[in-house]
Amino acid sequence: MEKQKRHYYVNMVEANDEGKIAEVLNFNFGGHHDLAAMVENAKQLGFAKDKHTKEFVLAMRFMHHVIKKNADNPLFAEFASQFEAFKQQVKSKVGCGCQCK
Predict the structure, then answer these.
(1) What predicted TM-score, i.e. pTM, was given to this entire model?
(2) Residue 61 to residues 21, 22, 46, 97, 98: CA-CA distances in angstroms?
(3) Nearest to 90 by CA among 36, 35, 41
(4) Would you give the DSSP letter of residue 19?
């Protein structure tokens, strides 16, 4: 079965105390994982707040993507294998939101 490519647009804005909103950054992000399904699955990890679940899923996906695309960067030399082990531990508990293995 071919994996469905998903496309996301990330737009971060900063809201100050006066109610002014300023765009901070934006970028496209893609892959075959269903981020909404991943958030739903990750709720069973017992985070204190729903927003923590969303932050966790996005952080995991973003970090995985960066490490994968920059595997030869010395910055990730030691961390990559530790992150992979952690990712596999999480995936064994909640899945990944798609049918990949």
Answers:
(1) 0.83
(2) 26, 25, 19, 11, 13
(3) 41
(4) S
| Coil, helix or strand at residue 13 | strand
Residues in the chain: 101
User: How many Cβ atoms sit within 10 Å of the Cβ of residue 43?
Assistant: 13
Which pLDDT band holds residue 70 (cuts at 50, 70, 90)? very high
Q: Which long-range contacts (CB under 8 A, 24 or more apart) does 17-23 make?
A: none
User: What's the CA angle centered on 84, arms 27 and 43, to 5 degrees?
Assistant: 70
Question: Which residue blocks in the chain are alpha helix, DSSP H?
Answer: 35-42, 50-69, 79-94
Please tell me which residue, 95 or 83, carries the higher pLDDT value. Answer: 83
- Per-residue burial over 87-98, b = 16 or more CB atoms within 10 Å of its CB, e = otherwise: beebbeebebbb
Nearest to 54 by CA among 39, 34, 37: 39
